[in-house]
Amino acid sequence: RSVYDDQPNAHQRFMEKLDACIRNHDREIEKMCNFHHQGFVDAITELLKVRADAEKLKVQVTDTNRRLQDAGKEVIAQTEEIIRCRVQQRNITTVVEKLQLCLPVLEMYSKLKEQMNVKRYYSALKTMEQLENLYLPRVSQYRFCQIMTENLPKLREEIKEISMSDLKDFLESIRKHSDRIGETAMKQAQQQKTFSTTLQKQNNVHYGRNMHFGRSRILESKNEITLKRTFEDDDEHEEEVLTAQDLVDFSPVYRCLHIYSVLGDGEIFENYYRKQRRKQARLVLQPQSSMHETVEGYRRYFSQIVGFFVVEDHILHVTQGLVTRTYTDELWNMALSKIIAVLRTHSSYCSDPDLVLELKNLIVVFADTLQGYGFPVNRLFDLLFEIRDQYNETLLKKWSGLFRDIFEVDNYSPIPVANEEEYKIVISKFPFQDPELDKQSFPKKLPMSQSVPQIYIQVKEFIYASLKFSESLHRSSTEIDDMLRKSTNLLLTRTLSSCLQNLIKKPHIGLTELVQIIINTTHLEQACKYLEDFISNITNISQVTVHTARLYGLSTFKDARHAAEGEIYTKLNQKIDEFIQIADYDWTMSESDGRASGYLMDLINFLRSTFQVFTHLPGKVAQTACMSACQHLSTSLMQMLLDNELKQISMGAIQQFNLDVIQCELFASSEPVPGFQGDTLQLAFIDLRQLLDLFMVWDWSTYLADYGQATSKYLRVNASKKNNIFAQFRKNDRDKQKLIETVVKQLRSLVNGMSQHT
C-alpha cells in the first residue's frame, strides 16, 4: 500500500529496491549452479554408461509385458466381470434399501385406499396423518411421493363430503323413523310404570294398604297378567330387549364428529348438526290438520317428538360437546311451548270424551317417557288440568244426551215389581228403602219411575268416567276426591238440572208426568248421600275430612221440584182455561136449565181425578195446586161476568151461573185435597159469591150504602164505572127510583084529591 501512497518518489524508490533484490537473487542462483555443476556432469556420464543396459532392459520389459498381457487377458475379462457383478450387486443393494424405505409408504397408501373403500374414514384420516408426518418425508425426493402428497388434501375433502352425506342420510332416516323410536320408548316407559305400579300394589297388599280405584282394578289386573306373561316370555326366549336407542345406528354421527374434529372443523360440524336438528324439530312439532280426529294422529305426533328427544338425549350422553345440556333444555322449552299450544288448539276440537281420555293417557305416557330422560314436564301436567275441564265438558254433553234419552223413553209411571227377584234387581240399581212398602205383598209398585235408577246408574258411570281422567296424574287421593265431587256437582247442578228444566217445559208433559217428576226428584235427592258414600269409597277419603266438598244435588232437585210445581199450577190453569173457553152461556135466557153446565161438571170431574193423582205429592204441593186451581177458576168465572163485551144479562142467566158457582163451592167443600183447615178452600170463591149475590138480589142501593165499610155484605165486590153490567144496574136502579117517585107523586095526588072530595 505504501507504494501507492501519496509520498513523493515512493514508486521510484520501490523500483530501485526491487532491482537490487533481483540482482541479489541472481548472484545466489549463479553460486548454486556453480556448486552443483560437477555433479551434473558426473550424472550425465553415468547415464551414458547405462544407456545400453537400458535398451536391453527395455526389450526385456517389452517382451515380458507382451507375454504378461497375453497371459492376463483372461484375468482381465474375469476381473471386469467381477467388477460388473460388484456394480450390479451394489445397485441391487441400493434398490433394496430404497424399496424398503418406500414400501411402508406404499403399504400405508394402499391401506388408506382400502379404508376409503370400506368407508373407514376416521381410520383413513389417521393413516393420512401418519403418511404426512412419518413416511412421506423419508421419500420426499420421489415423484410418486409428490403425487401422493397432492392427493391427500383431495382425499380429506372427499372424506368430509362422504361423511357429511352419511350424516344427512342419518338425519333423514331418524326424521322418518322418529315415530317408531318414540313409540318404542313410550312402550318401554309404560311397561316400566306398570311394573312399578304392580310392585307398589303388592307392597301395599303386604302392608294392608288397599289403595284402588273402582273399575281401574280390572284394568290393573289385566296389566299385571300381561306383565307376567311378558316376563315369562322373556324367561323362555332369553332375548335381550332392545331399547329405543338400539333402533338407531349412530355411527354416522360418531364418524362425522371424529372426522371433523380430526380435521379441525369440529365447531363447523356442531353448528351444522344443531341447525339441522332445529329445523327437524320445527317439522316434528308441526301437527297435521286432522290430528284431532283420531287418537292415532295424536299418538304419531307424540311418538315423533319422543323419538326426536330420545336421539338428542343419546347424543348428549355419548358425545362430548356436540350437544350440551343447555342446548337440549333450550330446544325442549321451545318444543314444550309449541306442544302445549298445539294441544290446546286441537283438543278444543274434540267432542268425544273417549278421544279426550285417550289424549290424556297419551299425554301422561308422553310426559312420563320424557321425564325418564331428564326433561321437565310439569307444564304438561298443568295442561292436563285444562284438558280435564274440557273432558268434563264433553262428558257433560254426552251425559246430557243420555239423560234426555232416559227421560224420552220413561213412561212416568211407578215401577211395577211382580216378585222378590224383580224387587232385588231394582234395589241393586238404586238405593231405595221404604219399610211400609216392604210390608206389602207382591205384586206392588215402587213410587219412582224407571228413569230414577237409570239416572242414578248414569251418575255413577259419570263418576267412573271422571275418575279415569284423574288416574295417573300424580295427584293425591284428596285431590282426586275433590275433582270427582266438583265434576259430579257440575253434572247435577248444570246438566241434570238443565235436562229436568227442559223436560218440565216440554208441551207433551202433562200433569201426571209432572207429578211423577216431583216424586222422582224427591228420591234422587235422597240418593245423593249414597253418591257421596260411593265417591268416598272409591277414593278412600272419609267424608268427615275438613276439605271434603259436598254434593249440591239437594238444591238441584229442589229447584226442579219447584219448577215442576210451578208448571203444575200453570198447566192446571191452562186446562181450566180450556174448559172455560168451551163455556157457552145464553146471557138472555129467561130461566135456567135447573142443573149445572156440562163444561163445569167436566171440569170438576177433571180436577177430582187430577187431585187424586196428587196423593203421592207432599201435602203442601197438593194443597197449593188445589188452592191455585180454585182461585184461577173463580177469577175466570168472575172475568166472564165482568166482561166489557157483555152488555146485559137476564135473571135466568144469573140463576144458571149461580148453579155453576154452587157446584164449585160444593167441590171446594168436599176437600178434594186433604189438609185444608175449615173453609179455607171455599174462600177462593167468596169474591165470586158476593158478586153473584149482588146480581141476584139486585140490591144496588145496599151496596152503595155499605160500600167501603168493614161490615158490608158485598165487601169483596169492587164496582167499576167502566163495567157495562154495573152501569146497567145503576141505570136500572135510577129508572126504578124515578118510577117509585112518580108512583109516590101519583099516589099523593090521589090521596089529596080524595081528601078534598071527602
Describe the 3D structure.
It is a single chain. This protein is an all-alpha fold. The protein folds into 4 domains: 15-96; 149-197 and 244-375, no CATH class; 392-413 and 449-566, Tetracycline Repressor, domain 2 (Orthogonal Bundle), CATH 1.10.357.30; 583-755, Up-down Bundle (Methane Monooxygenase Hydroxylase, Chain G, domain 1), CATH 1.20.58. It is 75% helix and 1% strand. The protein has 24 helices and 2 strands. It has a two-stranded antiparallel sheet. Helix 7 (266-285) runs antiparallel to helix 8 (295-318) and helix 9 (325-347) runs parallel beside helix 11 (378-409). It starts with 9 loop residues before the first helix and ends with a helix. Residues 380-724 form the Exocyst complex subunit EXOC6/Sec15 C-terminal domain. One of its GO terms (cellular component) is plasma membrane.
Key attributes of the depicted protein:
EXOC6 protein; two-stranded antiparallel sheet; mainly alpha; 4 domains; Tetracycline Repressor, domain 2; 1% strand
